[in-house]
Design goal:
Layout lengths: L4 H49 L17 H10 L5 H12 L2 E6 L2 E6 L2 H10 L4 E2 L3 H9 L8 H19 L4 H16 L5 E2 H18 L8 H23 L10 H28 L1 H7 L1 H10 L2 H32 L1 H14 L8 H5 L2 H13 L5 E6 L3 E7 L5 E5 L4 E5 H4 L3 H4 L16 H5 L16 H18 L19 E3 L3 E3 L4 E2 L1
Parallel strand pairs: 2-8
Antiparallel strand pairs: 1-2, 3-5, 4-11, 5-8, 6-7, 9-10
Helix pairs in contact: 5-9, 7-8, 8-13, 9-10, 10-11, 10-13, 11-12, 12-13, 13-16, 13-20
Bound molecules: protoporphyrin IX containing FE (HEM).
Length: 521
């Protein structure tokens, strides 16, 4: 008879325990909210004091929007896409509002700038205060772990090991490009029976030079089919990665099966060379294998993990191919639209390099106008036209605040700041009234580059400045020179309409290319 008593006592005890558990949970939740509130309040007060200490004022220039979460700003960008003139469309913001502006996309404060002082702060003077934000998850499926997806200590390590490689390459002579330049020239000669689009030739050329640089001799051992499969998948995966970057925190929305499969093909391609280099080392010893695979084996010495080596290689591939191809393509695009500039360049080349003579760095140094043409191409079409960083701690932008836009602006931890090198390079305040024209002479015998400082930064600046700058300039200079030398009648096909620079149709992925290609006759 006593049996039922026990469960009823147990039920009461359980009910009591559940009651005190709920009370405990409720207390915890309330404590959490109170703690959060106090913490947020404290951070806010600390940030306010930080802002006062630096004389910060609110940025009063705002990107106008009328829809909730500023969704109309996104819609206008989206609507401008089919015209393929998105960068030209965005110029109106800077023309009308000024070099700095605030916007509240999805309710979150963010900033846009083309002010060299602010860009210098982000990239250089306050470098430690800024991180990559959503770039890492956006690029991770394709690139994995490496210099473009890392911040802080891991980035420093990647930078150090890759810097060693580029330091070594700088002193090589231009012969490393010879075979690929010859392929480029013979490809162009074979196609020289009418209108030719140089752009795809340049992409093929820079893919060959970059793969050669990092994979060593072995690339030549792969058949054309394997190279083409890789190139197609690399193109597709890069294109989707650029979209994911634009989606920022919403990158996860775009991860299709096709994208994943393309990333896998790219990784396998790179992994194949890592495996080959390690096998060579096993069979023939470190010293001998290092002659064939210096880049891979040096990375392996440090990273000790084939997958990490593979990832760093893919990073360098993506960094090196499209950027340099676009530079060459825009340079020819501009030269054939300005025959007087092309003639001047050709005459300097002819006067310095005797016919049939091997081209060396010393020769290139004696053609200063080539550097002016490249600088001016970089100015009008910086290959990485826009970029973004996110504050990893509370910091300032030195300029843009207050009624006159001259005071520093407080940037709280977690705030994003985008900048447009493309639009900054078109500031009349830096380059004068002919800023939209192609005038390589502006770089001739002047100290313009020093004068504008961060106002000219095709390779960016500060601790993350491009590691392949010298390599890219060498290969582009050599290739442009060789094309101008080999094809003396290069010109714009008569049926092609000449538009003002910046008004032509463009394709914008991570890089900016001409949507019509670089057509010549
Ligand atoms: C005209 C050609 C090129 C241009 C305009 C260019 C431009 C840039 C820019 C603007 C950055 C900074 C990106 C950022 O911090 O968000 C960068 C970084 C980098 N570039 Fe280039 N690049 C070019 C060619 C190359 C080539 C040919 C290579 C290698 C073969 C290369 C390797 C790198 C690497 C490894 C970084 C990462 C540096 C870091 O984060 O520390 N680049 N490049």
């Amino acid at each position: 008879m006593g049996v039922p008593v026990v469960p009823s006592l147990g039920a009461a005890a359980i009910a009591g325990e559940v009651g005190s558990l709920s009370l405990g949970i409720a207390t915890l939740v309330i404590a959490f909210f109170i703690y959060n509130f106090i913490q947020t309040r404290r951070e806010y007060e600390e940030d306010k004091a930080f802002g006062q200490k630096h004389g910060c004022m609110r940025m009063e220039t705002v990107l106008p929007s009328s829809w909730p979460f500023a969704l109309d700003v996104l819609k206008k960008q989206y609507d401008a896409l089919p015209s393929q003139r998105l960068l030209a469309f965005q110029s109106q913001y800077f023309d009308e509002i000024g070099p700095n502006m605030r916007l509240a996309l999805f309710g979150q404060d963010g900033y846009l700038t083309i002010d060299p002082k602010n860009i210098e702060a982000i990239l250089s003077t306050h470098f430690e205060d800024w991180g990559l934000g959503s770039r890492r998850p956006g690029l991770y499926p394709l690139l994995g772990e490496g210099i473009f997806t890392q911040d802080g200590r891991p980035w420093r390590h990647s930078r150090e090991i890759l810097r060693r490689q580029f330091g070594r390459i700088q002193y090589q002579n231009l012969k490393v490009f010879d075979e690929h330049i010859n392929d480029l020239i013979s490809g162009l000669s074979a196609a020289d029976d009418g209108i030719v689009d140089l752009q795809p030739f340049f992409f093929k050329f820079t893919l060959a030079t970059t793969t050669d640089l990092i994979f060593g001799e072995a690339v030549g051992t792969l058949g054309d089919d394997a190279q083409d499969t890789f190139a197609n998948n690399f193109d597709y995966a890069s294109m989707v990665s650029a979209l994911r970057l634009r989606l920022a925190d919403f990158h996860w929305l775009y991860k299709t099966k096709k994208f994943k499969a393309s990333c896998e093909v790219v990784k396998q391609y790179a992994a194949h060379f890592v495996a080959q280099a390690l096998k060579d080392r096993e069979n023939n010893g470190q010293e001998s294998a290092s002659e064939r695979y210096p880049f891979i084996l040096d990375l392996y010495e440090d990273l000790k993990d084939p997958a990490l080596v593979r990832d760093q290689l893919v990073h360098v591939l993506i960094a090196g191919r499209d950027t340099t191809a676009c530079l060459m393509s825009w340079a020819i695009f501009l030269l054939i639209r300005h025959p007087e500039v092309l003639a001047k360049l050709r005459s300097q080349i002819d006067s310095v390099i005797p016919d049939g003579q091997e081209i060396t760095r010393a020769f290139i140094a004696k053609i200063p106008f080539l550097k002016c043409v490249i600088n001016e191409t970089h100015r009008l079409y910086p290959q990485l036209p826009v970029n973004v960083r996110v504050a990893v701690k509370t910091t300032i932008l030195p300029s843009g605040g207050g009624p006159d836009g001259q005071s520093p602006v407080l940037i709280r931890k977690g705030t994003g700041c985008g900048w447009s090198t493309y639009h900054m390079h078109r500031l009349a305040s830096l380059y004068g009234p002919d800023v939209n024209d192609f005038v390589p002479e502006r770089w001739e015998n002047t100290d313009l580059e020093r004068k504008v400082g961060f106002g000219f930064m095709p390779f960016h600046g500060g601790p993350r400045v491009c590691l392949g700058k010298d390599f890219a300039l060498s290969e582009a200079s050599y290739a442009i020179l060789k094309i101008v030398q080999t094809f003396p009648n290069l010109r714009l096909p008569p049926q092609i309409e000449m538009e003002k620079t910046g008004q032509e149709r463009q394709s914008l992925t991570i890089v900016v290319t001409s949507a019509e290609g670089s057509l010549v006759i």
